[in-house]
Amino acid sequence: MDLMLFAPEITLVLTGLAVLLIGLFLPTGSKNILGYLASLGILIALLFTVSSLGTQATAFYGTVSIDALSQFFKIVFLVVALLFAISGIKYTEGNSHTEEFFTLGIFATIGMMFVASANDLVVLFVAFELASLATYALAGFEKKNPRSLEAAMKYFIIGSLSAALLLFGISYIYGATGTTSIPAIAANMDVLVSSPMGLVAVVLLIAGFGFKIALVPFHMWAPDTYQGAPSVVSALLAAGSKKMGIVAAFKVFIVALIALQAEWQIAFAILAVITMTYGNIVALNQTSVKRMLAYSSLAQAGYISMAFVVLTPMALGGGILYALSHGFMKAGAFIATAAVVYMVLSENKDSTDPDHIDNFRGLGKRMPVTALSMTIFVFALAGIPLTAGYISKFVLFSSTIQAGFVWLAVIAILNSAISLYYYAKVVKYMYFLPTNSEKISEPLPYTIALIIAVIGVLVIGFWSEPFIYWSMEAAKVLLIPGGI
Known about the structure:
The chain is an all-alpha fold.
């Protein structure tokens, strides 16, 4: 086995251990260097991943695969992790637990990357839990903040339930087929198709992945967790952890359980419509920007879930491209909110709702880079042309129409129109409502992370062709084994 196939993961393991061990011997005032070390390690892992594009291989007796799909999602996870690490440099400033913060983030990313490469349900489940356990702790990182503790507890309880449902569903599949290998399950689906066990497994897996992706009605943990967790952590959860659930669901349903397509396709159609509609409508009345972004994230999950319904190469490619675009847009929006929270808390440490939309008043004058970045992110999320959000929605929605699901595309387009209201509301507060407060210096780490995210959003929007091609190549990995 060529260990260079796993150079990105090995790099992250070594980086995580180095950050943890070095942090033990550093005084609190010097721990800022750990953020730079973590960012460097993630960047090197990202370069290794990009350099290995086009590689096709399997390892560990076929339980792990390196292909266009896994490489695509690894890049998504590493980009989000890089934004998390860079912005975390400022967030953890003066914190005695800095090494724990970055180590947990790195190991969560390792779990996500192995989920993307998993070719076996046991490997997939173990990698899922590695990422989940790390993010449970990150959500409750602010131990003296009741909201952060509440976020972590709700996330942990619901996450544990979803893990149990996933494992239960996997056990039914193993009991019927005698294997946990995803390709082998696809080749031995006769038993599941002709037995009630297949339907039970599908129901359990949809519920389990529904929690991970935050599809309604399995979403109840997401708004409270995204609002209560530190904003930088919310960026990792919404832009990274959710995509882990999506790539896992792609592998399980479209590759392993394609013979049961009639059962789960209808379920995803219903869940997609309910999720995007509920998320957008509830987001309209939110006064907490983080909570608004959380409900917006539900709506985006609904859009991506359309790919499970349409199941054409273009639709799957659009869903995969949407995952990358959403990583830049949503991570950037939460990091911009983190910068505002930093501003508010630096002026009033006792503020109980630093992410309230009133704190965005006059942000265009107070923090011009943050305000401009936030404007680009929310417009991209709404699908305004020349952004990553627009091109992703165009590919996904147009493929839905071409496949004959006109009703689904119309619902999605109407939901996008609804979302314009609450996204424009944020812009209105930043640029059109007055403030008596003075301009402040914007923290450099937040600014760097925002600029990287903005570049990603605009490059995909302006220069979309290679990204569309890349996402279509990733979609082929799903389509060929399934025989669609």
